[in-house]
């Protein structure tokens, strides 16, 4: 398993912890299926960054709500999750034709512990070696004419700028009409607010590579348009009372914390 893939255990671990808590935010009751000893050891490394952990759960909830809203409008929606890690929304939301794309090690483990055949919705998993440019072939298994939502969560920060451009080009060529949901972190947030969580990510052998002051520009340059105001992950964490920060502070001295890490909704201009 490569170093970035190991971070998927961390994301799964925070969802498992959330599901066991008194007031779950995501309630991902399937996350525990993947929390074997090695996964737990990776997750435990992050115990000294509780605020970052809670932001990760809230991030997942914002994606979940956004996907659920779109499924409400179209039960037949094609949902393609790239770098899906141990996400289990295909089991927890009603409707959708789901594709989960990730590294072979993740896909094989997912299949062994939570088989696609047990999913109540249509679910296809595709193992891809991203480093070998296999995403293009994987996307050819999807329906280019379908109403399509692409989900890319917790991935872009690990990619170099040219890799992002290449990924967006592949997406827009293979699926000319789609909506893209993704989280983007800017350089200021990374420098000021990542805290100990980033040291732990580095200890796993990973690093953040997309450190732009306005990462969303790359998407606009690639032909996407922003569909609506981005959603602040820390702002939503405050709404859920998962973190305590005075609202005034978030609007002033901590504006970089509020606005530096957000969920974006983009649409291809062909839409
Ligand atoms: C931080 S995890 C996030 C997993 C999942 N999306 C979540 O939020 O729980 C990053 C994921 O990206 C996958 N990944 C690694 N390299 C990638 C690449 N070049 N393109 C897309 N995904 C990649 C990893 O295998 C891993 O599952």
Q: Topology of this structure?
A:
Layout: H1 3-19, H2 37-44, H3 50-73, E1 78-82, H4 89-92, E2 97-102, H5 104-113, E3 122-127, H6 135-139, E4 148-152, H7 161-174, E5 179-185, H8 187-193, H9 195-203, H10 216-221, E6 224-226, E7 231-232, H11 233-239, H12 247-251, H13 255-259, E8 261-268
Helix pairs in contact: 1-2, 1-3, 3-11
The structure holds S-adenosylmethionine.
S-adenosylmethionine binds next to helix 1.
Structure notes:
There is one protein chain. This protein has 271 residues and is α/β, with parallel strands linked by helices. The chain has a single domain (62-268), classed as Rossmann fold (3-Layer(aba) Sandwich). Helix content is 45%, strand content 15%. The protein has 13 helices and eight strands. The chain has helices at 3-19, 37-44, 50-73, 89-92, 104-113, 135-139, 161-174, 187-193, 195-203, 216-221, 233-239, 247-251, 255-259, and strands at 78-82, 97-102, 122-127, 148-152, 179-185, 224-226, 231-232, 261-268. Strands 1, 2, 3, 4, 5, 6, 7 and 8 form an eight-stranded mixed β-sheet that branches. Strand 4, helix 7 (161-174) and strand 5 form a beta-alpha-beta unit. Helix 1 packs across helix 2 (37-44), helix 1 (3-19) crosses helix 3 (50-73) and helix 3 (50-73) crosses helix 11. The protein starts with a helix and ends with a strand. The relative contact order is 0.14. It binds S-adenosylmethionine. S-adenosylmethionine (SAM) is lined by residues 4-5, 7-8, 11, 82-85, 87, 102-103, 106, 130, 153-155, 159.
């Amino acid at each position: 398993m490569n170093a970035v893939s190991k971070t998927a255990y961390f994301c799964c671990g925070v969802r498992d912890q959330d599901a066991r808590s008194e007031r779950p935010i995501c309630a991902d009751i399937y996350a525990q299926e993947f929390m074997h000893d090695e996964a737990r050891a990776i997750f435990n490394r992050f115990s000294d960054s509780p605020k970052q952990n809670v932001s990760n759960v809230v991030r997942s909830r914002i994606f979940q709500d956004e996907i659920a809203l779109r499924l409400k409008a179209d039960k037949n929606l094609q949902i393609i999750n790239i770098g899906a890690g141990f996400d289990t929304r295909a089991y927890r939301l009603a409707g959708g034709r789901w594709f989960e794309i990730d590294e072979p090690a993740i896909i094989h483990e997912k299949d062994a512990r939570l088989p696609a055949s047990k999913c109540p919705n249509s679910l296809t998993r595709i193992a891809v070696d991203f480093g070998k440019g296999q995403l293009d072939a994987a996307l050819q298994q999807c329906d280019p004419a379908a109403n399509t939502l692409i989900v890319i969560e917790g991935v872009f920060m690990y990619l170099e700028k040219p890799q992002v451009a290449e990924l967006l080009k592949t997406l827009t060529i293979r699926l000319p009409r789609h909506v893209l949901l993704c989280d983007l972190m800017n350089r200021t947030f990374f420098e000021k607010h990542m805290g100990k969580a980033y040291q732990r990510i580095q200890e796993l052998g990973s690093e953040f590579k997309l450190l732009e002051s306005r990462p969303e520009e790359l998407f606009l340059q690639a032909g996407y348009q922003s569909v609506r105001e981005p959603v602040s992950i820390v702002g939503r964490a405050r709404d859920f009372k998962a973190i305590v920060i005075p609202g005034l502070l978030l609007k002033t001295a901590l504006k970089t914390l509020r606005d530096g890490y957000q969920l974006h909704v983009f649409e291809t201009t062909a839409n």
